[in-house]
Amino acid sequence: MSPIRPHETLAQAYDGITTVVAPLDDAGLQRPTRCRGWLVADLLFHVLCDAQRALVALASPASGPADVDDVSYWRAFTPDDDGAGAAHAWWARRSAAAFDRPTGIVRIWTDTAPAAVRAAATADPDGYVSTQGHVLRVPDLLATLTTEAVVHHLDLVVDLPDAPLPAADPTRVAVTTMDGLLSDEAVRPAGWDDHEYLLKATGRLPLTDRDRVELGEAAGWFPLMG
């Protein structure tokens, strides 16, 4: 069996989010998420902006070499930058609130996400693109988009107990990203499953005392990204 391609994992990640939000009515889209201050509709708007950014990036070829890859890209997004994070959170909330109904965001998402995947499928896998002041290889861009989608999928379902979790292949991409940020000198505790790892690596769940013992010095590196 041939390995799954980067645009296919992105498709699975975006389809997973669609599966969560498409059945929700306006009340369901106003349930809380793991992201402080954001309802489901607010977080979906944020992910929608990511899909729109993907479309722009994939239409913005750049000369190489890349200045970041799918792991080092995340080092610019530090968990300590509370001011920038709060400002973006407030902007996203106000932008999402501008829709007449929360389901309006779902309609735009279900148009935009597949378009981003189609653009990813036709992009040159050996090419480079620019986004957010960086140059990345196309596969690395798609890995960053997949990682963000998987983490936010987990954020979306915190108050939706019947919603499906992210699929295995995109989850594996996100886990690989966290492994890269953790470095080769440390390993995650054996008791963590992939989703717990992602939630703790991104600061969604706190480390327990046992986690800290098992991680040793590496516990001080958590959260690995914001």
CATH superfamily, by name, is dinb family like domain
Count of helical segments?
A: 8
Pattern of helices and strands: HHEHHEEHHHH
**Spatial extent as radius of gyration:** 17 Å
Please describe what this structure looks like:
This protein has helices spanning 6-21, 40-58, 82-97, 103-122, 138-156, 168-182, 194-201, 209-215; strands at residues 61-62, 128-131, 134-137. The protein has a 3-stranded antiparallel beta sheet. It has a single domain, classed as Four Helix Bundle (Hemerythrin (Met), subunit A) (Up-down Bundle), CATH 1.20.120.450. The chain is mainly alpha-helical. A hairpin with a 2-residue loop joins β2 and β3. The chain is built from 8 helices and 3 strands, in the order ααβααββαααα. The model has no long low-confidence stretch (mean pLDDT 93). The longest helix has 20 residues, at 103-122. Helix content is 53%, strand content 4%. α1 packs across α6, α2 (40-58) runs parallel beside α4 and α6 crosses α7 (194-201).
